[in-house]
Amino acid sequence: MYDVTEVRKDFPILSREVNGKPLVYLDNGASAQKPQAVIDAVTRGYAEEYANVHRGLHYLSNLATEKYEGVRGIIARFLGVADEEQIVLNSGTTEGINTVAYGWAMPRMEAGDEIVLSVMEHHANIVPWHFLRERQGVQLKWVDIDSRGALDPQAVIDAIGPKTKLVAITHLSNVLGTVVDVKTIIDAAHEKGVAVLVDGSQSAVHMPVNLDALGADFYAITGHKLYGPSGSGAIFIKKDRLAEMRPFIGGGDMIREVHKDEVTYADPPMKFEAGTPGIVQTIGLGVALEYLMDLGMENVAAHEARLRDYARERLDGLNWLSVQGTTEDKAAIFSFTMNSAAHAHDISTILDKKGVAVRAGHHCAGPLMDFLGVTGTCRASFGLYNTEAEVDTLIDALELAHDLFG
């Protein structure tokens, strides 16, 4: 039985007040809070166990290396990957997608080749492809969503043409909460000989993921949204794709031998992990994923589905609020604007006075804001420790904002 009251006890920050009110943290889509187990692991990592990894032969280096490398297997288990050598450790989704852009796409794409994207991608899954557009003449093909915020997988499939080399698609929108049927897209793209990169930044924290069943060529996650430290993350890359890639960053650890006139690289995944990594951050990520697996991602998803349904019911009762993204298949993420002159930043500020933390702005999703015809929204994004009572507090704070703005 999932007991959210007990879960909340694992997160020390949730007991604090903000502006004299109990904290209601609804900015999980930007970054999630950390359980005590992760905080303890990071503190211990620096206070008692710190050393550089891989190169040392002393006790602390061996201990740090063992813990750090152990996270690769934890990530593989969490994502349903049998072969942990397909997991490349990094600082998060942005680095992961750039690794694919520079290491896989850039060497094999030329002017006129195409990348298919949806209009609701995060900038991390847009800007690296613009680099290829600017520098190599690669064409970006955009697929729109419908009025409910749903993305028809067939529309993505229909956008794939003879010059398409890659589909780069989110699994779950960070703005609308829309869940994308990436499995259908992947299967159809592969039939056409096209690779698929999936941005799993939001999906991996809200639902169970099994990459061996999903079949994506690339799947990126970021640690700070998964209740782990910032500066941690990973990207899954299929073995045959790893073999096609050239290194993105050069330096220590990713080499076998270096001479004045020759360099030979380490085997993947080390080939794509140059330099001293975020050792303690990555160890903390491993602890966070173990914490999630102990809770059970099915249980987390069920709890958040209940929150989603309750929040949708309460928000629907505010006839002066416009919620963007009303499709049924979505996570507990709600973006909204007020039917008045109130700016999203002003609404967020008023909510903050009530202790309610939400995000305001374009959410690193410029093309989606253009599509929606807004400059920004407020976003309330729920996590595994949020409650229905906190939904009520959000509604009360929104009603106060409405009263103030008329």
TrEMBL record:
SUPFAM superfamilies: PLP-dependent transferases (SSF53383). Residues 24-394 form the Aminotransferase class V domain. The keyword Nucleotide-binding does not apply. GO terms for biological process: cysteine metabolic process. Its cofactor is pyridoxal 5'-phosphate. Its EC number is 2.8.1.7. GO terms for molecular function: cysteine desulfurase activity; lyase activity; pyridoxal phosphate binding. Belongs to the class-V pyridoxal-phosphate-dependent aminotransferase family. Csd subfamily. This is Cysteine desulfurase. It comes from Roseivivax halotolerans.
